[in-house]
Please model this.
Amino acid sequence: MGKTLFDKIWEKHVVRQIDGGPAVLYIDKHFIHEVTSPQAFKGLEQRGMKVLRPQQVVATADHNVPTLQQHLPIKDELSRNQVQQLIENCKKHDIELYGLGHPFQGIVHVIGPELGITQPGMTIVCGDSHTSTHGAFGSIAFGIGTSEVEMVMATQCLMQSKPKLMRINVEGSLNKGVVSKDIILYIIAQISASGATGYFVEFAGSAIRALSMEARMTICNMSIEMGARGGMIAPDDITFDYIKGRLFAPGAAKWERKLAAWKELYSDADATFDKEINLNAADIEPMITYGTNPGMGMGVTARIPAENEVEEKEKPSFLKSLNYMGLQPGTVIKGKKVDYVFIGSCTNSRIEDLRLVASFVKGRKKADGVQVWIVPGSKQVEKQAIAEGIDKVFEEAGFQLRQPGCSACLAMNEDKIPAGKYCISTSNRNFEGRQGQNARTLLASPLTAAVAAITGEIADVRDYL
Model:
């Protein structure tokens, strides 16, 4: 019987299979940041241990950092202490740190791929749920808890039970104005925010294969939002071309050997999955969420479900969600005024995202009363945006290009959305309070966010292309 992409990578990394229990899984690369690592380091020190293989750990500061005036001390005491603790811990344990002021600093799931650290066939973990982003390269990548961060630091291994496997095939060509963020929001709306619980998902099909690496990362990033353990896409020439020549990519001497191994990373034709879903790319339109979980999404021209269209057991949470959002069942969301537009996060802050937004807003001005924050995912993205003149396009449109960090994706730093305000966000979560206490988040693609910034309301980007 054939093997899946997941099987091939998993089997090469199992150190020991415990009878009737989990596997001891070897971890190739461990990313850490300032939020989930302090307790792990403390646990090591309490046991008199050191990080076993510091050369396989990469650290950066991203969640708590300000996105303005990063050369100044961080104002928030908790954030400042966490960033300082990361600096001290990395120095003590000889770990490479890309902290504030470093040319490689940025969101952990942005810097790994752009530096060539993330590669096909790897096992990758981080104390952050959106580690699944790295699965776009054909790797097994997933988030872990703080106690597991400590376990990997101490042993370079992790106890893991093998998940069930799902494949989601998206076939055909995308419609005008539809991008990868719309694909994943559509998938989550179709199967719900818990529809992939217990599974590791492989995304496949002609629509997926046609995507750039940046777009594939967006897809895998949000696999977590449908309950999956992680998401992955088989590597191909698009993957290999992206990696080649990057700082930590295999050099000329190793490249051909690595490439030959990477080309074997695919699901065999006779491989079987526990569940398989087939979707048509032509059915997808620009998407937007209306509730407080990413599964509450719809086409931007659609209407919110009426109360009688919702299953009885789902009604209480459905109505509670709409009450929080200040929306009514059965109504159209298009045309609703927005207050903030946030373009950033580990989902949509890469140079391709910024180029896409800039190409739409060039020569246009933002609507009065709307604040627009553009937050690049890394110092390298910021540098490239400036080199290409994208910063000038944003400035002329009235947008604010800030400095790299997780920013308004989550309320752990200074970039918070005020209570009651509506924010079109390219991030990955729309939970209550995610962007600030009582803030109202509507998830969308960079294109849909861009048109909202220009019109001041939820709009269909297809009307403006």
User: Anything to note?
Assistant: The chain has two domains: 5-275, 291-463. Residues 307 and 329 are 6 Å apart (CA to CA).
